[in-house]
Design a protein that fits this description.
alpha/beta; 8 helices; about 230 residues; 6-stranded parallel beta sheet; Undecaprenyl pyrophosphate synthetase; 6 strands
């Protein structure tokens, strides 16, 4: 069976805090800051490889349980990214879309996110979905409740609930399923990342911490995918 071109790449950017501790920084935020640089790099690498969709796991629903200091630092860093890098994204024709349970965000955080989405809405070369306050189970529950409410209101018949109509209620509506997931940092699990969209995805795990992930590591992951014979049951 012929190898298939990657259309949608998912990335679990794990290892920022361990990287900071490894390098003896007093604050784990230094690892998160370095991780943002790697994120911008992988956007370039995806464009070079002709990958049109990228989804990165930036902040999970479980991350809300971290220390208040770290959560505040993360959102401060996100503010800085969305404000400082949006012009770079426009110049490079990168569209930004934020997915997740955004009802949990503070109003000023949500405003910053929406502004970045609006400013890059016309970009077409690469769609980057940034998962913030995201959990796969939460996403499925939100979609299920929305469909149930429509059934109760008489707007939707049960017979109309299909994989296609359900998928259209997910945060990633209109985006193809994930072909390859890269997870850095050594853990070998998906951690609630896009469970619906990764049912046929190949998973590439590496021990490399996210801030150290390089172009050579990216190419190695693509090479792994190229060697996999994909059988989707067709």
């Amino acid at each position: 069976m012929e190898n298939q071109q990657i259309r949608h790449l998912g990335v679990i950017m794990d290892g920022n805090r361990r990287w900071a501790r490894k390098h003896m920084f007093t604050s784990v935020m230094r690892g998160h800051e370095k991780g943002v640089d790697t994120f911008m790099d992988i956007c370039t690498w995806c464009q070079d490889a002709g990958i049109p969709y990228l989804t990165v796991y930036a902040f999970s629903t479980e991350n809300w349980e971290r220390s208040q200091e770290e959560v505040k630092g993360l959102f401060k860093l996100m503010h800085r990214f969305f404000e400082d890098e949006v012009e770079t994204c426009i110049r490079r024709d990168i569209r930004i879309k934020v997915i997740g349970n955004l009802s949990l965000l503070e109003p000023e955080d949500l405003e910053t996110v929406r502004k970045a989405e609006e400013m890059t809405a016309h970009c077409r070369n690469l769609l980057v979905q940034v998962a913030i306050s995201y959990g796969g189970r939460d996403e499925i529950l939100r979609a299920t409740k929305e469909m149930a409410a429509d059934v109760l209101a008489g707007k939707l018949r049960i017979e109309e609930i299909t994989e296609e109509t359900f998928g259209a209620r997910l945060d990633t509506a209109g985006v193809p399923d994930v072909d390859l997931v890269i997870r850095t940092g050594g853990n070998q699990r998906l951690s609630n990342f896009l469970p619906w969209q990764t049912v046929y995805a190949e998973i590439y795990f590496t021990n490399i911490l996210w801030p150290d992930f390089s172009r050579a590591d990216f190419d190695e992951a693509l090479h792994y995918y190229e060697g996999v014979q994909i059988n989707r049951g067709k």
